[in-house]
Design brief:
The complex is a heterodimer of chains A (about 250) and B (about 170).
Chain A: H1 5-8, H2 10-17, H3 23-34, H4 37-57, H5 67-72, H6 80-101, H7 113-126, E1 136-137, H8 141-152, E2 166-175, E3 180-188, E4 193-200, E5 211-215, E6 218-225, E7 228-234, H9 238-252
Antiparallel strand pairs in A: 1-2, 2-3, 3-4, 4-7, 5-6, 6-7
Chain B: H1 4-21, H2 24-40, H3 50-67, H4 92-103, H5 107-118, H6 123-130, H7 134-152
The chains are: A alpha+beta (about 250), B mainly alpha (about 170).
Chain lengths: ~250, ~170
């Protein structure tokens, strides 16, 4: 570059090309460039570069935004508050289950069968995991409880199912159809596992009795309560699973 | 300004990512990663320049990806950088030349040229996005513009010997 550039300053030439000088300096640079045709040409080419950038890439602005990007920008599935809303359900679930178990037959909306499917899928994915079955293990139950409790602003205790032969392995958070989902995993002495899946269901607001489904050999008891859906999944017989679902209720409602 | 404003930034993020990577799919992957990271870090955002904040997130992701050997590099000389389609293809060849030349800049130079020339960020904001001193921004801008000029003119010097402005 021309050594005379220093008299006006190369930075200032770029600022001039980018239209970022005030009127006084702009006039000074213009006067200087009038006497330095080489640099005037260079600066003109810098400006053309900027125009070409816009020319080449501005059409992207008019393209339809792919749905996956719009979805990724929506906070609904990612906010910590929603993440914890699933856990809040723990505090409310007991009353409903108790109501159901006492024999009253509520006729709420049908629970979404996708809840059972998603729960069974999550069970199928994580229950065989040897090294990483959960995000936070039961050994860190204090941390697990604090983690969830902090987010929901209320104390939370995963039910203990020792009486049914199952110990808490830990818990994890999963992406669900309508937002984050909490999954708690339990295991018995033989290594058999069951999972409790808690999701926020934005579309449903009814209450239902226990419903049962089988998905690829996995039994699922599931029900809705207000905006929350629950599913207990295990590769076991229906009466055994119901027995444990009952125990879940009893744990939450001493 | 709230989270919904992020949606309004998507077209510009896509434009920038397209120019940065030269690849439509990789660009949208980068945008998606940026959006997800932004929402995850939302509590860290302070009222200010949302766009610059998003670009800084994208920059970090881009730099990390560029370090990863698994990621496809910017298309080389033989590959034609992908350009958005437009109605008038009369200047398509010229645009191809331009995009190819742009692709031959270093990533550092390309980032600065795009942030300043395409996104119209101030030099200060560009420096913040890239977490470098403003002198470095000016230096990269100078070298990038000169190299691009040489490439477009068909002159590709082995090395530029421009005075660094620091």
């Amino acid at each position: 570059m021309n050594t005379n550039t220093r008299s006006i300053g190369e930075q200032e030439l770029h600022a001039f090309a980018d239209g970022r000088l005030d009127a006084t300096r702009r006039a000074a640079v213009e006067a200087w460039l009038a006497e330095h045709p080489d640099m005037r040409q260079t600066v003109a080419e810098w400006r053309i570069q900027g125009e070409q950038l816009h020319h080449a890439f501005d059409p992207v602005l008019d393209e339809a935004v792919p749905a996956r990007l719009t979805k990724a920008a929506k906070p609904a599935s990612r906010l910590p508050t929603l993440r914890m809303a699933a856990a809040i359900a723990w505090l409310a679930v007991g009353g409903l289950i108790g109501y159901q178990l006492r024999g009253a037959p509520p006729q709420g909306p049908q629970p979404t069968s996708s809840l059972a499917r998603q729960a069974a899928l999550a069970h199928a994915v994580f229950s065989p995991e040897v090294r990483h079955p959960v995000e936070v293990g039961a050994a860190e139950e204090t941390h697990l409880v604090a983690w969830l409790s902090k987010r929901l602003g209320a104390e939370l205790k995963p039910p203990r199912l020792s009486g049914q032969g199952f110990e808490l392995v830990g818990g994890r958070l999963l992406p669900g159809e309508a937002g984050p989902v909490a999954q708690f995993m339990y295991q018995d002495a033989r290594g058999q596992r069951l999972t409790l899946y808690v999701q926020r269901d934005a579309q449903e607001n009814g209450e239902t009795a226990f419903r049962y489904a089988r998905e690829n050999g996995i039994g699922v008891f599931y029900w809705l309560d207000g905006r929350f859906g629950y599913a207990l999944s295990g590769e076991m017989e229906k009466p055994d699973l119901l027995r444990i679902a009952t125990a879940v209720y009893q744990q939450l409602n001493p | 300004m709230g989270r919904h404003d992020i949606v309004a930034e998507i077209p510009r993020l896509r434009r920038y990512a397209r120019a940065l990577t030269g690849d439509a799919v990789r660009a949208d992957d980068l945008v998606q990663d940026t959006l997800e990271r932004a929402l995850g870090k939302w509590s860290l955002w302070r009222p200010g320049n949302l766009r610059a904040w998003l670009f800084s997130i994208m920059h970090n992701l881009f730099v990390n990806q560029a370090r990863s050997p698994r990621v496809v590099d910017y298309p080389g000389d033989e590959a034609l950088p992908e350009l958005p389609t437009r109605g008038n293809q009369g200047d398509a060849l010229e645009l191809r030349d331009f995009a190819r030349s742009l692709a031959r800049l270093s990533e550092e130079q390309r980032e600065v040229l795009l942030l300043v020339g395409l996104e119209d960020l101030s030099y200060e904001d560009a420096a913040k996005v890239l977490t470098v001193p403003i002198g470095t921004v000016m230096s990269r801008l100078s070298r990038g513009r000169e190299r691009l000029r040489a490439l477009l003119a068909g002159n590709e010097p082995a090395e530029m010997h421009l005075k660094a402005v620091k």
